[in-house]
Write a structure and sequence with these properties.
The chain is mostly beta strands. The protein has one domain. Helix content is 15%, strand content 43%. The chain is built from two helices and six strands; from the N terminus they run βββααβββ. The strands form two sheets. Strands 1, 2, 3 and 4 form a four-stranded antiparallel β-sheet that branches. A hairpin with a 2-residue loop joins strand 1 and strand 2.
C-alpha cells in the first residue's frame, strides 16, 4: 500500500484509449482507489475511459490497452506500438 499526502492508496489502474489504425493515444484514464474503497472492474474502467471521449473522438476506430500507471510520465507524449500492443514514448515531430 502506498501513501500520498497521508492518504493510503490501495490500488491504481490505467486504461489507454487509442486509434487502432494509427496508434495515436486519444485518452489515458487513470483510477486510484483508497484504502477501504472498492476498485472498479476492468470492464467498468474501460466504460469510464470511453465515456470521457468527445463525440468526434468516439467516432474513430478505437481500442483499449491496460497499462501500469506508474509507467506514465506526466507531460510525456505517447503512442501505442500496434505490433507489440504496448505504450511507447512518441517521437516528437520537428
Amino acid at each position: 500500500m502506498t501513501q500520498h499526502h497521508n492518504v493510503e492508496i490501495d490500488r491504481t489502474s490505467a486504461v489507454v484509449v487509442y486509434d487502432r489504425v494509427t496508434g495515436d493515444v486519444l485518452h489515458i484514464h487513470e483510477c486510484i482507489s483508497l484504502r477501504g474503497g472498492e476498485h472498479p472492474t476492468q470492464a467498468a474502467l474501460e466504460a469510464d475511459a470511453l465515456a470521457q471521449l468527445s463525440e468526434d473522438t468516439a467516432r474513430k476506430p478505437t481500442a483499449l490497452l491496460h497499462v501500469d500507471p506508474q509507467e506514465i510520465v506526466p507531460g510525456a507524449d505517447y503512442r501505442v506500438d500496434l505490433k507489440q500492443r504496448s505504450l511507447v514514448v512518441a517521437k516528437r515531430q520537428t
